[in-house]
Structure of Aspartate aminotransferase family protein:
Amino acid sequence: MAVREVNHPTLAYLENTPSSKQFLEEAKTVMPGGVTANIKHFDPHPIIMKHGKGSIVTDVDNNKYIDYLMSYGSLVTGHGHETIKQAINAQMVEDGTWLFGTPHHLEVEFGKRLQNYFPSLERLRYTNSGTEATLLALRLAAAYTGKHKVAKFEGHYHGGYDQMLVSVNPPVDLAGEEHAPNALPESKGMHESHVENTLILPFNDLNACEDLLRAHRNEIGAVMMEPVQGGIIPADVAFMRGLRKVTRELGIILIFDEVKTGFRLGLGGAQTRFDITPDLTTLGKAIGGGFPIGVVGGRKDIMMNSAPSSGADVFDSSQSKYFSAKDVLFHSGTYNGQPMILAAGMAVINILEKEINSVMEKTNRLKEGINHIFDYYGVEGGTVGIGSIFSVTLTNKEKISNYRDLQQTDLATRKEIDFRLLQKGIYTKPMNRFSVSTSHTDEDVDETLIAFDQVFQEVFEGSRF
């Protein structure tokens, strides 16, 4: 498909957000580049927010936006939900503190709630982020199998650490054959061994994946995947079933990274929706309602590798003559299972049990409305995604199946659309996905569709590709 040459409407953006630019310049005197996470940056400068309530965020120039970034999907109940505030306050009042540094009752109660919706979590452990969860999952898989090489899929993101920061967003001209992708590092400072020890698989291509895994069966201990790539491109059910079969046959641990999809495709995530049982699952983002949390869970025989043994711990100075630290899989963290966050997580489940169907209905109405606008203006493309998260693509492909398909879409025009939406009070970070929350209203959806229609008039002027 032809890609339009566009000039992004950055002039209006700069005129509307001068205080954000000024803030960033000051922030650069404190933090490299003015941000403490690269994902928060975009050119010419990110918008600096000062207030959020429900579905609305307000920036430092007092511009108001309907927020569809929702902190990259974490805020499944929106900003500042009163029920979550009450749950946090109640926990602090009842327990008298927000951190024990010891086991406590919410670790068990929240864990059982998760097991109810994710039956594959026979045992689980808490972490402080999705990144930490995937790190622990890899260690568990290596301890169980004795194999330290891992396989991941091209275009899938599992956290910003060396082993998984490979071929997340590779240049297609350097990425190698589609059926046998090259492993490419995504950061400075990475040792070449991480690239050598990470096998890259092509998403939604079962035959190629099976060939690669069989060829490396004696080296690969785990396959980690997003069952919905980037939260928007679902794996074909036949592909997941085939992958589940071949990994089980080869003794390779199958890890579902559901940090993006947990509570977003339903309370049981992608594995429940598609009836696929992984060996290990990682969770994060939405399950904590906007607070830092991660979970690793799965088969009891794998998870029990992390159970402490008497006299066998890196912090135990009186080692038993029968055990040493190397005999036990180490996992620790001062804030793991933080009571306040687990109280928030319990509240999130309570809210979603009542309102998740409404969230899905609003998401579907928004997607259908956007697709209708594409059709009305004769623009090739539409929405991609399932559950309460989706993205917008401009392409003549009938189906987006993987990273390379996504790279062939009209990314320049998508970016222009996003910047024009910002001027009309619709916020997501340009080029990012849309996440709908319980706080979004029917009026928000209506206003968003009006803005999309106005933007399509401006960009395409009613003409057809």
Summary: Confidence is low (pLDDT under 50) at residues 1-6. Residues 100-337 form a domain with the Aspartate Aminotransferase; domain 2 fold (CATH 3.40.640.10).
